[in-house]
Design a protein that fits this description.
The chain is α+β, with helices and mostly antiparallel strands and 375 residues long. It has 16 helices and 7 strands. Strands 1-2-3-4-5-6-7 form a 7-stranded antiparallel sheet. β1 and β2 form a beta hairpin. The model is unreliable at 1-20 (pLDDT under 50).
């Protein structure tokens, strides 16, 4: 009997060791589906093991069960900041915001220099659009040693959301100077700088600098090339803008662009305002060879900002017309009327500055069509 009891104790002890090793291994392997199977043996688990099981539930988006496991880990003595950080995250995802706030504050108490703790407390306010409270914790997080990119972006982003563009831009630059340049958030900060310098400040050189740095970091962010081209076009450096366009054109010809860009077959290269309405200019990658194919197309957006009101474009002429490879045309979207103007080109190299001038003349009613037709 005594031998049997001793054997039982030994086996139980050995089972506990194997059990502990298994949980550790599963946690390291991120095998969360297997980890949660230990939920029925919580009385036998250590505080750390309970945390691992709770974390597995968290990763599998079962936050209520994660909270239950975290509470058991805390009851068994786990009192580090990370247990409160992850309990706070689960509470927040479960939309228990007030409880999450209290728990994140416990994480801060345990680790006052932990940037993530301040960041996630700030995010809890941010997601509720309580921006003033969020800023308090994001500012504090931004002062601490780098762990997470969020506070560097969220501080200026809040001012951006509130349309305080001067303050937003100031804070984007501060964050850019503080953040770990390896963080993906650094790229988002640069993009926002490029956007505000272009749209709000109209300081195109600074916009170009920001966008160029992003492209140097991630040259396959092909959607950003259009923004860089537009910045060059806005400062009327069409030669440099076209050199960037030609990079994308080459990618198009080699079928290396994302599917949606391959389908569009062109790039927005310029924007201007006319009588309070936006005019967007597109340049096409494909050489205009077929009848009516465009090199450039301008879109006048209506006052709602949602629909195209008018198109003005270059069209490839028929081979029968001598000395005119391309002609300037217009299309009224409401009536479907197609207009032809007296402006023609005998070359594929169309001077954009000149073309833009013609477009403005047409919009101003200073150039009448030579012919019109309805389809």
């Amino acid at each position: 009997m005594k031998i049997g009891l001793t054997l039982t104790v030994i086996l139980t002890f050995l089972f506990g060791i194997v059990n502990a090793q298994t949980i550790e291994e599963l946690y390291k392997e991120k095998n969360f589906n297997e980890l949660i199977k230990f939920v029925d043996n919580t009385e036998e688990l250590t505080a750390d093991q309970l945390y691992y099981v709770g974390y597995a539930f968290f990763q599998l988006e079962n936050d209520k069960k994660a909270i239950e496991m975290y509470d058991k880990a805390i009851a068994k003595g786990l009192d580090d900041d990370h247990i409160y950080l992850y309990k706070g995250l689960s509470l927040r995802y479960d939309e228990q915001y007030d409880k999450a706030i209290d728990v994140f504050k416990l994480a801060i108490d345990r680790s006052p220099k932990g940037q993530k703790n301040y960041t996630e407390l700030g995010n809890t306010f941010y997601f509720q659009e309580k921006y003033d409270s969020a800023l308090v914790y994001f500012y504090k997080a931004r002062e601490l040693e780098f762990e997470h990119g969020d506070p560097y972006f969220k501080v200026p982003n809040i001012y951006h959301i509130q349309e305080n563009y001067n303050k937003a831009l100031e804070e984007y630059y501060i964050s850019a100077s503080l953040i770990n340049k390896e963080a993906l958030t650094y790229i988002e900060i640069l993009k926002s700088i490029g956007l505000l310098e272009y749209t709000d400040k109209m300081k195109y050189d600074k916009s170009i600098k920001a966008y160029s740095e992003v492209i140097s970091i991630n040259p396959k962010d092909y959607n950003l090339y259009s923004k860089l081209i537009k910045a060059y076009y806005a400062k009327e450096d069409y030669v440099k803008g076209d050199s960037i366009f030609n990079i994308i054109k080459s990618k198009y010809e080699n079928n290396e662009l994302p599917e949606e860009m391959q389908e569009v077959k062109g790039e927005l290269v310029d924007e201007l305002m006319w009588n309070g309405q936006k005019v967007s200019a597109m340049k096409y990658y494909k050489k205009a060879q077929e009848f009516a194919e465009p090199i450039y197309q301008f879109f006048l957006i209506d006052k709602t900002g949602e629909e195209v009101e008018k198109k003005i474009l270059t069209e490839k002429t028929s081979s029968e017309i001598v000395g005119a490879k391309h002609v300037l045309c217009g299309i009224d979207k409401e009536t479907g009327t197609h207009y032809t103007y007296s402006i023609v080109w005998d070359t594929d190299e169309i001077d954009y500055r000149e073309l833009k001038g013609y477009v403005i003349m047409i919009l101003n009613g200073e150039m009448n069509p030579q012919a019109s037709s309805s389809f």
